[in-house]
Specification:
The protein is mainly alpha-helical. It has two helices and no strands.
Length: 59
């Protein structure tokens, strides 16, 4: 009976699940940030390439 009581009170698995959820949240945030940054960089390099091919100088 004492073993069953100890098993019920054991919360070590809950901690592992919490760490897993935190890691998943960080991964989702990183993916969103990288996607946004990637699109911004794509637009910047496209504008730069277009300006260079037209011979436009902003200096």
């Amino acid at each position: 009976m004492k073993t069953l009581t100890n098993f019920i009170k054991d919360e070590s698995g809950a901690t592992a699940i919490e760490y897993g959820l935190i890691a998943a949240l960080i991964a989702v945030a990183a993916i969103v940030a990288m996607t946004t940054l990637g699109n911004s960089l794509k637009n910047t390099f496209s504008a730069t390439s277009s300006a260079l091919s037209k011979g436009v100088s902003n200096f």
